[in-house]
Amino acid sequence: MFTGIIQDIGSVTDIIKNGDWVVSIQTRALSLAPTAIGASISCAGACMTVIAKTDHSFQIQASAESLSKTTIKDWKVGTQINLEPALRMGDELGGHLVTGHVDGTIRLVSRMQDGDSLRLQFSMPKDLTRFIAPKGSIVIDGVSLTVNEVSNDFFGVNIIPHTQQATTLGALHMDDEVNLEVDMMARYLDRLIQK
Q: Which fold is adopted by the domain 8-85?
């Protein structure tokens, strides 16, 4: 489990593409000392297992399923990604409960200044529309956000200056693809209603 509060922006330093991909990621601010081999780290919103580590870098292994559902398939050396270690008992829950199970990818369709903030609009994924509601929670590339607006074609969020600097969202360009995780409670509520 995660909170959607990003602790560092990491950088991809190597990718080995034999079968599953083995990706090496360097971190500047994330302390890897308490991170065990086999622990989870949210990498651009995807819950990934640490298979090796040094003091300032770690490796993950991305399966075919992860590559098909996330932006990992587009990573290359130098790609910047949001990082968050798994939530520990007693940690502050500043965002919302996040699983790191990416539902799919979406594209940025509009970017405009709104005061000091950025107003970002993303393509509405047709199969996930029922899970996205105004003032509900959403996770984009691992960042916990509040949905501001919803239409049939898009949904929008505001990114304050701190979030622009502390995550990769401030550097997004038109048509960039990002990982999306809908709110876990909305998903379970939908399942209960269907039953």
A: Elongation Factor Tu (Ef-tu); domain 3 (2.40.30)
